[in-house]
Design a protein that fits this description.
The protein is mainly alpha-helical and about 55 residues long. About 80% of the residues lie in helices and about 0% in strands.
Length: about 55
Amino acid sequence: MERGTAIRTVLSNAEVGDVRQSLNDTLQQFEQTRHRSRLAIIASGLQEGDDDR
């Protein structure tokens, strides 16, 4: 950028779009795993509550 290179060119050369997409994909997988974990914990709690009857 100091040499007058356009920001678009710098970002393209750094493959920022690919890195961003990879991060988005990883975050989506993490969120899905977190959601499934929460559902499993809630289901276990509900089942445990049913067993106390």
